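Handout, section B. The chain below has 1017 residues.
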Amino acid sequence: MLLTEKWKVAHVSQTSRKCVVNSSIDRRFVNHINAVSSSAQLKLCAKPFIESSRPILRRFHKTRGNFAIGAGGFFGFFKSDPAEATRKKYQSRVDEINKLEPRISALTDDQLRQKTEELKRSVASGATLDSILPEAFAVVREASKRVLGLRPFDTQLIGGMILHEGQIAEMRTGEGKTLVAVLPAYLNALTGKGVHVVTVNDYLARRDSEVVGQVHRFLGLSVGLIQGDMKPEARRIAYLDDITYVTNSELGFDYLRDNLAAGAPELVLRADTPFNFCIIDEVDSILIDEARTPLIISGSSDKPSTSYYKAAKVADALTRDVHYTVDEKQKSILLTEDGYEAVEDVLQVTDLYDPRTQWASYIINALKAKELQIKDVSYIVKSGEIIIVDEFTGRTMPGRRWSDGLHQAVEAKEGLDIQNESITLASISYQAFFRGFPKLAGMTGTAATEVSEFDSIYKLPVAVVPTNRTAQRTDNPDVVFRVEQYKWRAVVTEIKRMHKSGRPCLIGTTSVEKSEMLGGLLQAEGIKHQVLNAKPENVERESEIIAQSGRRGAVTLSTNMAGRGTDILLGGNPDYMARLKLRELLMPEVVSQVDDENRYQKKRDGKASKLRSWAANPELFPCQLSDATLALANKAVQAAVASWGERKLEVLDAEDRLSVACEKGFTEDSATLLLRQAFQAMLAEYKVVTDKEKAEVVALGGLHVVGTERHESRRIDNQLRGRSGRQGDPGSTRFFLSLEDNLFRIFGGDKIKSLMSAFRVEDLPMESQMLSDALDTAQKRVENYFFDIRKNLFDYDQVVNTQRDKVYAERRRALLSSSLEALMVEYAEKTVDDILEANVSKNEEQTEWRLSALAGKLVQYCYLLEGLTGDDLSKAVAEGGYEGLRADMRRRAVNAYYQKVQSIEQYEPGLMAEAQRFFLLTQTDTLWKEHLQAIKFMQQAVGLRGYAAKDPLTEFKLEGYKLYVEMMAKIRRNVIYNVYQFQPQRIIKNDEKEAEKQQAVAAKDDKKNKRVKVGNA
């Protein structure tokens, strides 16, 4: 055990200047310290004391092996462990919850459910959530124990309290973050205002709602789920539930779509409280890694230009460092003089920056596609489409596109059909979006390195939650090679060594390309392995691969481990195996084939290819099930078919029913109970094998993690390390690096370059404190660099965000308001004020005021004022001067508005209200879209003002405010003008036309008959 864990209350005595130790510690070490402290070198709590102690501390470390100098130096040991500080802070409330446990445990299921209504009544009568927290947490703990068979640890209660207080809980991998979220979600849902639990992908959202959502349902709360392919009606119902599980992108896009809705029925978020309390899983991935990528809803613009293909051919012919330079750090391309001349010569143009052709943007994007967007790293090609790969999670992002023509440039590079260019209709960053929640909380295994960013941008404190069991993972020193090829050779050797011993091995790579290359090397060595990367065929088996990565001899390659959401259990995950086996038997019998086709297998022409196979890889299962268990499972499946119908269920419905069957939640459905019985039998058989295998793997040393490259962020490296050593299991990690890795090549600086030339050995690993410091410095430099980018984007986005909030608030008020009369009157008065200020100056003499021209402008603005003359306005001026003129014009405009409303209402009641809302929404959407384009252009332009010694951000705020004021003025002018000009025309339907035609014929015949009668007379 490290000394930091033993020596918690050591201090230096003020009187004797001796080191006093209040816990057991090696006496020789104390004598060393006291010897130093009695010398003339010692200044209490000063630097000389630290410096003089270092040699002794180092010698002690070498001789005893149970002491290490931390980053804080010697006095780092006088600081308390942050996790321990968290435990002490919340221990009293944990004890309070534990005291309630016997009483809560004695309740029946119905009595436990009634507790929810009791707590709701308490909140409604004025009780604070903090006051009912102990009882609410005790209720959830008992429900979880009964439904899931999982009793939340004390550390999980602490995590729940941290989340309830609107903080970020840093919890190590395997500590049960998913179950932690259930506690504060239940407590905050008691207010009836809704809770959002945000995850990083649809699979995790569905899994959490199905599994831990059973606790909420058992306690009488409703649980909603949002999936990517859901219709608006289903989304609206899900958001009205007490707790809604949703992905970050779906929630953000629903917010943007709501602010483009043409009518109240189109809204999907709650109308009264769209946002209340939000818990974000993998909060660092969403709020940090994805903060640079805004959510954008775009509309189709003009047809794609063929210039993209021509630019791709030109870019392919250009030579790097001759015709252009690449800045990988800034991710930018710069043409050289030779490049300008070559491109202009090939394209036969005189100016690349001619705004009529815009060849410069096409060429720059083509070069970015060539140099910076790498296939199988930045994107993959699937079914003739470019699909972006998330650089942090390694997942594909279908439906997302790069902006500003870059996506079209990549399509041209790959020779694919170029899709239409787009124009931004609505946009928001995750930074701005999640700051809109009154109460925000998050969970992650790695947040400590980003404390300053969470605090400065989101005002979210980070609290480290203590682990349930003491960690036993060994993090070995990095092994660094000068040349990359020798690094990969060493990685393969390390994997072979571990595989031979039987230890499971998890290898982390930074791209699809690297994982497939390493997979080829392992295949050549005859090492069986599983690959998990952004390729679609691997993503679909993600959970299967990860859940079994802890089995004896398993070798797993993964592009990134962030947000995988599945634990690696040593010996294998018997629960997942049994669930997978039951799913394999049940799904083909109860899932609709039509639904299955439409959901999973689509070609580009929209036709289904082949039915999805539900069969799992047989090698995932540790043993063959007994005949009795298989017979029980088949009997349960037949009962389900008889009860639910043969191939009648949709996939999501079937998954939900299977999830209930595999848990312990209350159900009266006989088919579900039979499936549960079969699941328990399967689980028991698999568990016998996995428990035995776990004991073997633990004896071998647990899961070994191999990192093949340092990531841009230390958090991603820590996430990979965190997969080993969960819940006190043994484990180890080691990173293999080379000085040719992208991180050090781009960000390493002169120190790394000098090290590359200093070390002459090619194929041997290097260990050097100076080298390790240089690597750490490079990584910190990258983190700071990207933080500066995000902070800069945040500063600029704050300007747009303030404007967006006001525009969306006005739009929503108009959408939901029963009457817009007051707003229209305001628009009429303000527009008249604008006309007055544009045509008449207070500073001029009244005799110089051009009242006739002003009257003409008013008539032009509102035709209902026809007949108004300058003489009419002169009377108002004579009575009250400038303000009298303003009041008279306002009165006339408002009277004209009421006159218009009256005439339309006589024509058709309620029509004017609909027209006003339509005009307001359309004008707001159109002008806001134009405003976004103008703001985007201006943000690029103000950067040049730095050369004039002006702060670009300040200039952006000033110019942005001017644009905003102009936009709002345009909205109200256009809306009220359209109201004045509104001339409804009756649309005659075909049946009405036919009726009118028949009436006309009948009238004509009647008239003819009358003439005949008169003639006869």
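Note. Residues 3-79 form one domain. Compare this with the example in section A.
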